[in-house]
Amino acid sequence: MRTIDVEVVWATGMKTFSKKAARQALGIKTRTTFNEDLKALGLWGKARLTIQDLTEIFKLKVYLSARPGVNSRASYTKKQKFPMVLESEMRLYGININQVVGDFRNAIG
Amino acid sequence: MQLDELVAKYGDDLYVALDKLNIEPAESFSDEEVARIDAELAAPVKEEPKEAPAPTKKNGSKKSALTAQQKQQKAGKNITAVSQEATKNTIAVRSKQGQQMAEAGNRAMVTGYLEGTAQGLAEFNQSILAMGQHLGATVEDASLLEAEEIEALDGNEDFLALPSGGGFSLM
Prior knowledge:
The complex is a heterodimer of chains A (about 110) and B (about 170). Chain A has helices at about 20-25, 30-40, 50-65, 75-80, 85-90, 95-109; strands at about 10, 15, 50. Chain A has about 110 residues and is mainly α. Chain A is globular. Chain B has about 170 residues and is mainly α. Chain B has ten helices and no strands. The radius of gyration of chain B is 23 Å and the shape is elongated. The interface of A and B includes residues 81 and 85 of A.
């Protein structure tokens, strides 16, 4: 038996991704890393992920790569309450989070 | 004051202060809000009083007078240095506790310790300290053990019989 990976577009027009397709879109090589990201963001257990979900994972990825070894998933989830402050913090690292997120969303359609 | 300035000034602490003070973040903060954040983050953090170290032996041998920094420095030294520095009065664990110590580690750790590798020393030290806490024993610093005691532990049959990782998961 072979599993075929397909994109599903619901009647609402909302595009969803399988976990594998989402992982590939995000450029995350290992399932372990991806699963940890999902758990940190409370997305663990979802069969399919929306573009909004992918955006959140992408933001986490950007945050972690901004200060490797310092920024953690745990600290990100605490900071999520204050997106404006987080945006400002990212600016401090020279990252325009809105722009990179916009580029990402354009890339995944 | 601008948000960017506050972020640059306080870093991660700003999130804590905003959460605690229930201040809604905006592009700029009023002087009053900044003052509240300043006051919140300037308040000294209450430290829990540290427990006085217990004597290493019931018969009243001397307590270890090493500071935390000295202990860290010692933990990084090789076995020769430990052997030279350890004295009879500062031995943290005696042979009657050997079995308990045996349960705290495994041969690989002792080998690492004897070889004097930094990782071996650190792992062994951590394991002994954890075991001491688990048993309520007064182990202060495994690096205070004399070389002979470590070697005796290495040859201890009960110790060697333990599976890799020891009988406890204390690491």
